Amino acid sequence: MWSATATTRTRASGDGGPARLLLVGVVMVVGAISLSASGVGVAAGKPKTPAEICAPMTTHPERVNQTQRALRPFWLHVPKCGTTFSVTMGQVHCPEARITEPVISTNKILKTPACKNRFARLTDPHDGLVLSETKRMVVMLRDPLDRVISGYLHKFHDCKSMQLKYCGAAYWDRCNTPPPQVLNSNPDTVLQYAKCVQGLATHMLNGHHSRDRNFQAPTPHEVLAAAKRLQEAAFVGIQEEWNKSVCLYRAMFGEGGMTDVSFGVARPSKYPENKNKVRKLLKDADWFDTADNLVYHAALERFKNDSLHFLGE
Ligand SMILES: *[C@@H]1O[C@H](CO)[C@@H](O)[C@H](O)[C@H]1NC(C)=O
Ligand SMILES: *[C@@H]1O[C@H](CO)[C@@H](O)[C@H](O)[C@H]1NC(C)=O
Ligand SMILES: *[C@@H]1O[C@H](CO)[C@@H](O)[C@H](O)[C@H]1NC(C)=O
């Protein structure tokens, strides 16, 4: 939404007065419509219940907590994959936290005394799986190509060597301005980054932290082990199927204090125009993360099976 506004305004800036005013007016109206559609606007009306939101995605929206498990989730937070799923977990397992915003630091959940023991792990840093916690694992995955694009544009997320080189700080949160290399999206830095974070999801599913080292191709054994752990996990969600993932979680582990906030988009991309540019550069270079693609496909299979089983479609 912001991107469309920004682009239209830039294009409109060369126009004469009235035409420009009209354009800006249209942009504002469109903006207001999409604001209320996303539930942010004041005139959005009564928020929908999770059952109402999930109704188109399941044959039986009234059925929740079908596993009858009191899950104490262990979150495997793969970078750039469903950060805000912590809101869903918070609402389901600790309604006492009273989450009312689609973006929230997990600290805020954990600071609520009642929530402390509800989670085996719910931290923000991207630590690897503790292998003994596999059966409690909750993880979201997304297409590896999109993950790389998103991380590249987010200050070389998880690539320490590039962060040091281009921002002079080892962590993205201390890297204050997006370096020009990011915004110019040149092929060398894009490929260097893609290689740096290659196999990241596979490595994390084998217990490595995202910031441990510059990543190298995982071994076939590690790929198989990662895929197997996705079969054993408590929950595997798919970022591209956000709402269905939230509905599946509800169907499997209960609704708790879930509201429409669990379905909201919290962090719209800051550089949407650059995304397509980076995507094209990676495609032109034939970049393909074999390990993470295999693991992503294992996740898709698991998700499909669970959806069929718990949502009925
Ligand atoms: C997900 O659900 C929310 C809440 O109903 C809705 O605003 C949003 O448009 C849905 N997203 C998609 C991609 O359908
Ligand atoms: C799901 O069911 C289990 C077993 O009855 C229960 O302990 C747990 O609290 C339920 N989960 C939610 C979110 O209601
Ligand atoms: C499909 O899902 C059901 C329910 O979770 C599970 O019992 C079954 O083992 C799964 N099958 C496969 C092949 O993953």
From TrEMBL:
Give TM segment ranges: 21-44
The record's GO molecular-function terms, alphabetically, read:
sulfotransferase activity
A single cellular component GO annotation: membrane
What keywords are annotated for this sequence in UniProt?
Membrane, Transmembrane, Transmembrane helix
Check the record and name the InterPro entries matching this protein: P-loop_NTPase, Sulfotransferase
Q: Does the keyword Cytoplasm apply?
A: no
Q: Which Pfam families match?
A: Sulfotransfer_2
Endpoints of the signal sequence: none
Q: This chain belongs to which protein, by name? A: Sulfotransferase domain-containing protein
